[in-house]
Amino acid sequence: MSKAHPEERELVLASASPRRRELLARLGIEPARVVHADIDETPCKGEVPRDYAQRMAREKAAAAADGKAFVLAGDTVVAAGRRILPKAEDEATARLCLELLSGRRHRVLSAVALRSPDGTMRERLSETVVRFKGLSGEELAAYLAGGEWHGKAGGYAIQGSAEALIAWISGSHSGVVGLPLFETRALLRAAGFSVA
After folding, report:
1. Are 131 and 104 in contact (CB under 8 A)?
2. Could you tell me the sign of the dihedral formed by the alpha carbons of 39, 59, 25, 184, in that order?
3. Enzyme catalytic residues
4. What pLDDT digit, counting tens, does each position of 124-139 carry?
């Protein structure tokens, strides 16, 4: 029995993030299924942000694997030095993150992993440097009141109103949103997918 060409196989997106699905659509790809990869996202002791992002992407892809489809997974980490900033689940956490990022540079590491049905794993990593302006108390309060920070790594969403508070970025805008399109396209093409 001959193996199906990658274009004839299903692609599963191992992420419940609507942003990742929207970004994947920019490459002309609609996943056959979207699966939430339920894994432990606790960083290992001493784990640096780059290694953590890559491990999370690999583990999400492996958790959603079924042996029949290609599985695409991603993970985005906001790092201040060697410190991995949390996903803000409450306003106090978002405030702490944004106060830390105010007026300084930080890195956003966005890892992508593609697991083939045979278990082969391909990976790519995008690293972007972002600098917030110095945030006034009024600007911080206004951003927090909008609620965009909820569930976002580092307490902000660059695709929302936070973009007006960012002085500059160097790297991948789509990577900061949650799926670096350059790296994702390269992974898919390497696996034989037709990509826009």
Report:
1. yes
2. positive
3. 75
4. 999 999 999 999 999 9
**Which residues are 127's β-sheet partners?**
109
Answer yes or no: are the C-beta atoms of 190 and 172 closer than 8 Å. Answer: no
The DSSP letter of residue 119 is S
pLDDT tens digits for range 79-127: 999 999 999 999 999 999 999 999 999 999 999 999 999 999 999 999 9
Q: Which CATH class is domain 7-190?
A: alpha beta
The pTM of this model reads 0.91
Residue that the structure tokens 């990593």 belong to: 125
- Report which residue type is found at 106: H
- Where do the DSSP E strands lie in 14-135? 33-34, 70-80, 83-84, 105-115, 121-132
**Across the chain, where does the E strand assignment appear?**
11-13, 33-34, 70-80, 83-84, 105-115, 121-132, 166-170
DSSP code of 81?
T
Q: Which amino acid is at 24?
A: L
